[in-house]
Design goal:
464 residues, alpha/beta, Urease, subunit C, domain 1, TIM Barrel, seven-stranded mixed beta sheet, 13 helices, 16 strands, 21% strand, binds guanine, binds zinc ion
Length: 464
C-alpha cells in the first residue's frame, strides 16, 4: 500500500516560499516541462522566482517538500455562468437552447440576486479553486447587485476572476423593469460595475461586458455594450453558434446579416478582447473573419451533452485562431477543467475515427496547454499567467496525482501515461492547495468535509 498523501509542511500561504514537487507545465517556447524532482520558488510579490531541478536549486527560501505531489499552473476556464452552479451535472438532454434557457436556467438565475450572491459566491469560487481553476471567465445574472457581490467576494478572498453582469433585453426574466427602460438601465449599471472593478488589484479582477447572445439582446444592447467595452479597455463576451436550432432563430431575427458572426460584427463586437463561447457551426468565412479580428474562441467540450455537436478543434487551431477551453458551468457534467479535457479528448478521438482526413488535437500535453497557456494567450494575459515560468505570477495548484492510482506497483516511466492518470482519473479532492499570485485561496479541502457541507479550510491551505 502507498502511504497517505503528505500534508504540506510549512503550510506556505504567501511568498516567499519554495515547493519541492513534480513540476508540470506547458512553456512559452512550445516545450513541455516535466521535472519529476523540481523546486519552484515564489518571491514576496507572488511572482515565480525560479523553476528547475531540485539538484540545481540555489535560492534562500524555505523549501516545503511535498513530493510526490505535482505542481501545475492554474487552469483557465474561458466560459461559465456563476448563477448556474447548482445545475452542474444536470444537462439539457435534448432540450434546444432557447427552451433550456427560458424554462430551466432562467428560474435558477432569477434567484441569484445580491443577497444570494453574497451567500454563495465564496462557495462557488472556492469550488473552482478546489478543481485547480485559478482564472474563471464568468457570466453573472442580470442583477447588478449579484455581480457586485461576486466581485467583492473575489476581491476579499484573493481569487482571480473575469466577470460581467449578464445583459438581456429580450426573453428577460427580470419583468419588474419596463421594456422602455431596461436597455439603458442595464448598460449604465454595467458601466458602473466596470468602473468599480475593472483592473482591481493590479488586474486580478477584470470586467467583461456580457450581452448573453443575439436572441436575447436588442441590436442597441449589443452595439452599446461593445462600444462601452472598447471605451473602457474591457472584455466583451457572448455565445455564438451553439446549436442548429439557434441558427434558425438567428436567420429569422436578423435577416439583414449574412451569418451569425455578422450579427456581432455589425454591432462592433469583434476584436482581440471579444470571447465567443461554443462556435460549433461556423462557415469558412466566419472563421476567417474571427481570425483577422483576433476574436477568442471558448471551446466547451460539454457541447456534446447539450444538443450541440463537436467543434472542429484541430481545424480552428490550424487556422491560427485564438482557442482556449471552457467548462460552461452549469451546462456541463462538472466544473473541473479536467472533466472538460477528458470529454474533449474523447470527442476529438471519435471525430478522428470517423473523419481520418481531419487534423485533430489529441496529445494530452497539448490539451493541458489549451487549458492553461493557450487560454492565457487568448486573453492576452500570458505575460502574467498560464505556465510555471520565471517572472509570471504564481497561479498554480498542487495535485495529489499518485493517489489517483487504483493500486501501487506502477513504474513512472512515460510522461504521457502519467498525464492520462491526471486527466482521466482526476477526482474531487486531488487538489491539495491552490495559489493565486502566490497567495493561498480558499477551496482545497472543500470536498473532504465529512458532512459534505461547504467548510473551507482556514486560509484555504492544506491541513494534515
Ligand atoms: N446561450 C445563451 N445562454 C446560454 C446558457 O446559459 N448556456 C448555454 N449553454 N448556452 C447559452
Ligand atoms: Zn454559456
Amino acid at each position: 500500500m502507498e502511504t497517505a498523501p503528505p500534508s504540506l509542511p510549512g503550510n506556505p500561504r504567501r511568498g516567499p516560499f519554495a515547493l519541492r514537487a513534480t513540476l508540470v507545465s506547458a512553456r512559452a517556447d512550445g516545450s513541455f516541462l516535466f521535472e519529476k524532482d523540481g523546486i519552484l520558488e515564489v518571491d514576496a510579490s507572488g511572482a515565480i522566482a525560479s523553476v528547475g531541478p531540485a539538484s540545481a536549486y540555489r535560492g534562500a527560501a524555505t523549501v516545503s517538500d511535498v513530493r510526490p505531489m505535482w505542481l501545475l499552473p492554474g487552469m483557465i476556464d474561458l466560459h461559465g455562468h456563476l448563477p448556474q452552479f447548482p445545475m452542474t451535472g444536470m444537462n439539457a438532454y435534448g432540450l434546444e437552447v432557447m427552451p433550456w434557457i427560458v424554462d430551466v436556467m432562467s428560474p435558477m438565475e432569477r434567484r441569484f440576486d445580491g443577497e444570494r450572491s453574497r451567500e454563495k459566491s465564496l462557495e462557488y469560487l472556492s469550488l473552482f479553486a478546489a478543481s485547480g481553476t485559478t482564472t474563471p471567465v464568468l457570466y453573472g445574472s442580470v442583477d447588478e447587485g449579484a455581480t457586485d457581490a461576486a466581485f467583492d467576494t473575489a476581491a476579499r478572498h484573493g481569487f482571480r476572476m473575469l466577470l460581467g453582469q449578464c445583459l438581456m433585453d429580450r426573453y428577460r426574466y427580470d419583468g419588474a423593469i419596463p421594456d422602455s427602460e431596461v436597455t439603458e438601465r442595464r448598460l449604465r449599471q454595467s458601466e458602473a460595475l466596470c468602473l468599480k472593478w475593472n483592473g482591481h488589484d493590479n488586474g486580478r479582477l477584470r470586467y467583461v461586458f456580457t450581452p448573453r447572445f443575439a436572441p436575447s439582446c436588442s441590436r442597441e444592447m449589443m452595439r452599446e455594450s461593445a462600444a462601452l467595452a472598447k471605451k473602457h479597455g474591457a472584455y466583451w463576451q457572448t455565445h455564438l453558434s451553439e446549436t442548429p436550432g439557434e441558427m434558425v432563430t438567428i436567420r429569422e431575427t436578423f435577416p439583414e446579416c449574412s451569418n451569425y458572426l455578422d450579427v456581432y460584427d455589425q454591432a462592433g463586437g469583434l476584436g482581440p478582447r471579444s470571447i465567443f463561447a461554443h462556435c460549433v457551426f461556423l462557415s469558412a468565412g466566419e472563421l476567417e473573419r474571427m481570425r483577422e479580428t483576433g476574436c477568442i474562441v471558448a471551446h466547451c467540450p460539454s457541447n456534446v451533452l447539450n444538443t450541440a455537436g463537436v467543434m472542429d478543434l484541430g481545424r480552428y487551431v490550424d487556422l491560427g485562431l485564438k482557442v482556449g477551453l471552457g467548462s460552461d458551468v452549469g451546462g456541463c457534467a462538472d466544473i473541473s477543467m479536467f472533466s472538460a479535457i477528458s470529454l474533449g479528448w474523447v470527442c476529438q478521438s471519435v471525430r478522428q475515427r470517423l473523419r481520418p482526413e481531419d487534423s485533430v488535437v489529441l496529445s494530452l500535453q497539448r490539451w493541458l496547454e489549451l487549458a492553461t497557456l493557450s487560454g492565457a494567450r487568448a486573453l492576452g494575459l500570458d505575460g502574467q499567467i498560464g505556465s510555471l515560468e520565471v517572472g509570471k505570477e504564481a497561479d498554480m495548484f498542487l495535485a495529489d496525482v499518485p493517489s489517483l492510482r487504483i493500486t501501487d506497483g506502477f513504474v513512472d516511466k512515460w510522461v504521457d501515461q502519467l498525464l492520462t492518470l491526471l486527466v482521466f482519473r482526476a477526482r474531487p479532492g486531488m487538489v491539495r492547495a491552490t495559489w493565486v499570485r502566490g497567495s493561498a485561496v480558499p477551496g482545497p479541502g472543500i470536498f473532504e468535509a465529512p458532512e459534505r457541507r461547504f467548510r473551507p479550510h482556514a486560509g484555504g491551505t492544506v491541513t494534515a
